[in-house]
């Protein structure tokens, strides 16, 4: 993303320039990536926005439409990119991605191998984690997907940190030129066990592999193969619960007045059925948090293993 463009200053203090990619944010479930083009306009339900008005504003600014509506202009971080990229395949989302980056122990300077590239959702976060001096080599056997991923990394400013190869990793393994060079390897393949012997050759001593699989049968088969060369084999399923934060008007009993209403146990906020109790209740505004209906369930299993020492 922008912070790694050596010709420019850190994006979060930088002003938006003609040609920059910005994330136009309406709300958490409605945003899109737009390349700023002096002379162009964005039209949405909030009105018409002239790109020319965005140039020179800092990232994070509120932009006004001709009829007074607004959007926010955000810097294209990997987290936001994952939410706006075009889906050419299933992708990894933030909950799995953050766990992968942490458990693979990826830090600036690491060399990471990945297959398949897919829509490049994970690749973008891997690249930010290894920046500015590391590199991600990502492989997909689907030529058109590889081409589109390259174009996306150009667009989002990550291309200097990522090389995209076309290769059948299950059939051929990773190229021998990477033998013993990888700090970590990530697989999102239908038959990851076929690639694991090659992964063991690619990793540096003590390196870590992670394989993402939607089905437990794939996990079992991978674990059987991992036992030959790897240790500390562990599988995780990341389940995330999102909460909606809403302001609501609720009734409060006299005795509860003055206490932090939002944190009262639910039962104490119930409407009473008896008339006399109704008289000693008054309405108040409060912030409520409740589990979101959009909460995602199972995405897949993440299996990690460390190359056994010799
Ligand atoms: C689910 S997608 C990966 C999504 C990616 N993790 C993301 O977050 O955007 C799986 C990719 O693996 C690729 N693939 C499947 N078999 C492969 C193989 N044998 N060698 C290389 N790539 C392969 C597919 O073309 C597909 O693009």
Automatic annotation (TrEMBL):
InterPro entries membership: SAM-dependent_MTases_sf, TRM61_C, tRNA_MeTrfase_Gcd14
Subcellular location as annotated: Nucleus
Keyword Transferase appears in the UniProt entry: yes
Annotated binding of S-adenosyl-L-methionine, by residue: 119-122, 140, 168, 188
UniProt domain tRNA (adenine(58)-N(1))-methyltransferase catalytic subunit TRM61 C-terminal: residue ranges: 69-306
Record-level GO BP terms: tRNA methylation
PANTHER family the record matches: TRNA (ADENINE(58)-N(1))-METHYLTRANSFERASE (PTHR12133), TRNA (ADENINE(58)-N(1))-METHYLTRANSFERASE CATALYTIC SUBUNIT TRMT61A (PTHR12133:SF2)
Family: Belongs to the class I-like SAM-binding methyltransferase superfamily. TRM61 family.
Protein name: tRNA (adenine(58)-N(1))-methyltransferase
Species for this entry: Asparagus officinalis
The organism's taxonomic lineage, starting at the top: Eukaryota, Viridiplantae, Streptophyta, Embryophyta, Tracheophyta
């Amino acid at each position: 993303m922008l912070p790694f463009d050596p010709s420019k200053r850190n994006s979060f203090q930088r002003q938006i320039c003609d040609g920059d990619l910005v994330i136009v944010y309406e709300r958490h479930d409605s945003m899109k990536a737009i390349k700023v083009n002096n002379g162009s306009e964005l039209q949405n339900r909030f009105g018409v926005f002239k790109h020319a008005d965005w140039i020179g504003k800092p990232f994070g600014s509120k932009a006004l439409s001709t009829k007074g509506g607004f959007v926010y202009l955000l810097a294209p971080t990997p987290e936001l990119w994952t939410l706006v990229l075009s889906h050419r395949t299933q992708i990894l989302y933030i909950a799995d991605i953050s766990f992968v980056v942490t458990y693979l122990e990826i830090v600036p300077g690491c060399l990471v191998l990945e297959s398949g590239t897919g829509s490049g959702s994970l690749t973008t976060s891997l690249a930010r984690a290894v920046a500015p001096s590391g590199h991600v080599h990502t492989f997909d056997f689907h030529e058109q997907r590889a081409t589109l991923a390259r174009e996306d990394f150009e667009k989002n400013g990550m291309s200097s940190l990522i090389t995209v190869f076309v290769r059948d990793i299950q059939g051929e393994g990773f190229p021998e030129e990477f033998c013993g060079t990888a700090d970590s390897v990530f697989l999102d393949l239908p038959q990851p066990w076929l690639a694991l012997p090659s992964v063991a050759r690619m990793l540096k001593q003590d390196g870590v592999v992670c394989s993402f699989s939607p089905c437990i049968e794939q996990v079992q088969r991978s674990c059987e193969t991992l036992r030959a060369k790897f240790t500390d084999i562990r599988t995780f399923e990341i389940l995330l619960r999102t909460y909606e934060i809403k302001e609501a008007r609720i009734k409060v009993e006299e005795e509860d007045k003055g206490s932090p209403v939002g944190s009262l146990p639910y039962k104490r906020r119930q409407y009473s059925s008896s008339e006399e109790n109704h008289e000693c209740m008054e309405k108040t505004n409060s912030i409520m948090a409740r589990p979101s209906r959009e909460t995602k369930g199972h995405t897949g299993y993440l299996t990690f293993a460390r190359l056994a020492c010799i």
